[in-house]
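Structure, all two chains, one model.
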Amino acid sequence: MKAFACIAAAATLLALAAPASAQFAKPEDAIKYRQSALSVMGTHFGRLGAMANGRVPFDAKVAADNGEIVAAMAKLPWAGFGAGTDKGGNTKAKPEIWTEQAKFKEHSDKLQVETTKLAAASKTGSLDSLKTAFAATADTCKACHDAFRNK
Amino acid sequence: MKAFACIAAAATLLALAAPASAQFAKPEDAIKYRQSALSVMGTHFGRLGAMANGRVPFDAKVAADNGEIVAAMAKLPWAGFGAGTDKGGNTKAKPEIWTEQAKFKEHSDKLQVETTKLAAASKTGSLDSLKTAFAATADTCKACHDAFRNK
């Protein structure tokens, strides 16, 4: 729990330290950053999914390790969605991210809540707990993608 | 310290859990993963560099937070360099990564040592400590890039 709690605190403080857009020299940099963070998160989330969906045998240690990384990574991408980063790279981000910022933040906050639960579930050694938390997190991913990401 | 120590342990265990190549369905996936992890690391490392080099004012909290993330991210990319991932995407990786694996591992291990020191230094509140650790880490990046990354 401590690892991602710490990284969460770090990410929150970073986000507060400066306007998000000021953290990147160019919109392309912010876009690359958020895509990279989401991609790393997705890789580790996919490993949990493979176990949750029975494609690979459940391994409690692998579950715990991947859950930890997913929760840590879930804190990072949001700083890359600062003002002015709607264009400038190859992005699927919808304009609504910037026109409905409060709603977008609700989604990103929810992901952090769900991945924190997922990390906790991934440490229980229970495949059923993992399945439940994985499904809840996957629903959160999908809801945000449906609202804010172009196909 | 706990955050990155934990993620380090998690990453090590993941690396031991299966051959690296088995963790990715396709070489492209491994290449994207390692590039993404290195990119996120580079972003946060760059924030430390901006302070170490005087481009932005030193902020102890921002330093500590970024150091933590750099050290955590430094554990991740190596699983993406498994057998068969020398080709398959847009990669600058030299063949020597796979023909001189022990030497490559020395470099990746060294980066993890140096970023652990960097994270510690970034928490001291001392710009001089940050500068020293940043320079040592940057040297480590460069040595590995010179040996194992095409221009």
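The radius of gyration of chain A is 16 Å.
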